[in-house]
UniProtKB/TrEMBL annotation, chains A, B:
Keywords: DNA-binding, Transcription, Transcription regulation. GO terms for molecular function: DNA-binding transcription factor activity; transcription cis-regulatory region binding. Residues 27-87 form the HTH tetR-type domain. The keyword Transcription regulation applies. Residues 1-24 are annotated as: Disordered. This is AcrR family transcriptional regulator. PANTHER family: BLR6905 PROTEIN, HTH-TYPE TRANSCRIPTIONAL REGULATOR RUTR. Residues 50-69 bind DNA. It comes from Afipia massiliensis. It comes from the Bacteria. The lineage of its organism: Bacteria, Pseudomonadati, Pseudomonadota, Alphaproteobacteria, Hyphomicrobiales. InterPro entries: Homeodomain-like_sf (IPR009057), HTH-type_TetR-like_transc_reg (IPR050109), HTH_TetR (IPR001647), Tet_transcr_reg_TetR-rel_C_sf (IPR036271), TetR_C (IPR011075).
Length: 240, 240
């Protein structure tokens, strides 16, 4: 395996310049602004919302946005941190659970898809921060979101190989393919409407995609498919 | 399987309003403008190029952009059509080849990744047209690009099930997961630099990703892994 692909993602301590917003208790006014931002994105089915619109909807003076978050990227980062908080907190817990690596991976795949489903703007918010934000913003997304997720996947893949359940795969390539596949259902929402029918991503589609992704990725990862629970061996069961 | 997920993607004849740019022979001036647009995107490592910059680089009068393509979306659509032309022309040919469905799927996966690799802006161009273009632009991308690709995948999945090589999967969900996974290596280029090393997507990474994706997706798709060629059974062979 190439050393370039197994390089450890940099794990650095929280930067001194950036307050650790994802763990510090949140001020009530700041929380109000985040609620308004999330609600606006859901109402509009778009992440294009301005600071003045957010301030107006929350009833908070626009000047306080700057006070609490510095700028718009700061507010969007805090929104991502809020929405991903429970998943991120859960990662270390899942890794230590007394269940098989296969079962952990299954829960992880379902967890990603459920998070995107529950927060309809999550996928677009991540794209916005990574592709249109500053270098500093992108680094911050990596610090509290992408790096911990990648570390979790790498740790889980190691557990699976040690247990003899997973074949050896490159963690970076696996991470990229898993997240790209999960994201594409949601990011390409309008685009996928043609394939998914006019109702879009219903709860049934969510369940079907979890079944599809679990069978596909575990099928490609497991050393022995016979080890899969029966509802994963027969996709027709998982999908109806 | 849910009927909403197996609905046939609309296959309509080329619209009368939109000239069939993807098959008509191209005017030399129009071709020059496309070369300039593609070169600029590669030089800048960005799809953000203005019409006047494209005109200037090509040495063509800016007024002719409007004459040949109508507007910027028209030019970008023609660029996508040009860059995807050989892959699109190849689809029908591959489906009729006297090789197994497994081998066809293997070539298709490699074909997608190679296309993204060969044209460094391709992934971002598709995102730009689908997510920031007009409704009409998105429809046009579907007409000459997405619908034929989806039809190909659906046809290939049917062939594989008939041959007893593939288990039955929903073609829409499979299409979404395959394309999302392939795209994510390239679209998240800057983002993935942390995982892939500072050299980014080298030819070695391209080969490794083809090996990874082929093993993963065929592993999840095939009814019997023993039917895979030996270089797919052992990912370590494909990846070094």
């Amino acid at each position: 395996m190439s050393p370039t692909l197994t390089a450890k993602a940099p794990r650095r301590p929280p930067s001194k310049q950036v307050p650790d917003k994802d763990t510090a208790p949140m001020n009530a006014t700041a929380a109000k602004l985040l609620v308004a931002a999330g609600d606006l994105m859901i109402e509009r089915n778009s992440t294009e919302v301005s600071l003045s619109e957010i301030a107006q909807k929350s009833g908070v003076n626009a000047a306080l946005v700057k006070y609490h978050f510095g700028n718009k990227d700061g507010l969007l980062l805090a929104l991502l941190a809020r929405d991903a908080a429970s998943e991120m907190a859960n990662l270390a817990f899942v890794l230590d659970q007394p269940i098989s690596p296969t079962e952990k991976m299954r829960r992880h795949i379902a967890g990603i898809i459920n998070a995107y489903y529950r927060v309809p703007y999550l996928s677009r918010l991540i794209h916005l921060l990574l592709h249109q934000g500053s270098e500093e913003t992108s680094k911050e997304v990596h610090r509290f979101f992408i790096n911990p997720l990648f570390d979790f996947v790498r740790g889980l893949l190691e557990q699976g190989v040690e247990a003899g359940e997973f074949r050896k795969v490159d963690p970076a390539l696996f991470y990229i393919s898993l997240n790209g596949a999960c994201d594409n259902l949601f990011y390409g929402r309008q685009m996928n409407a043609r394939f998914l029918g006019s109702k879009g991503i219903t709860d049934e589609v969510r369940r079907q995609y979890i079944g599809h992704m679990t069978t596909l990725f575990l099928g490609g990862l497991l050393t022995d498919k016979a080890g899969m629970p029966s509802d994963m061996e027969r996709p027709s069961t998982a999908k109806t």
